[in-house]
């Protein structure tokens, strides 16, 4: 016999809080917020480039390698880097600031 106000399984609702917790999807709220922030960062980065600026690299950067090379003049950096780091032991700017290697 069902108590008054208690949903039934036939109605598709869980009977108890424990049952509700078991049926709830695993959602990492922090990951969802982080994905939303990354999407917003991409919009900001594109708008900054569209307006003729460049984004400072102290914060998270969401660039592909090609976008990074196109937006930042890498020739000024790469020439001395190749000259003084012949063994390529130092990280390039993309690895340092975008990949955070």
Describe the structure.
This protein is mainly α and 101 residues long. It has one domain. Helix content is 51%, strand content 0%. The protein has 5 helices and no strands. The protein is elongated, with a radius of gyration of 25 Å. The model has no long low-confidence stretch (mean pLDDT 75).
Short overview:
The chain has helices at residues 17-23, 29-50, 65-71, 75-84, 93-98. By secondary structure, it is mainly α.
The pLDDT mean sits at 75
Number of domains: 1
Shape: elongated
Count of helical regions: 5
N to C succession of SSEs: HHHHH
Structural class: mainly alpha
Share in helix:
40-55%
The end-to-end span amounts to 62 Å
- Uncertain spans: none
- Please indicate the percent range of residues in DSSP E strands (runs of 2 or more): under 5%
Cα gyration radius (Å): 25 Å
Give the number of DSSP strands. Answer: 0
The main β sheet shows up as: none
List the helices and strands and how they pair.
Blueprint: H1 17-23, H2 29-50, H3 65-71, H4 75-84, H5 93-98
What are its keywords?
101 residues; elongated; mainly alpha; single chain
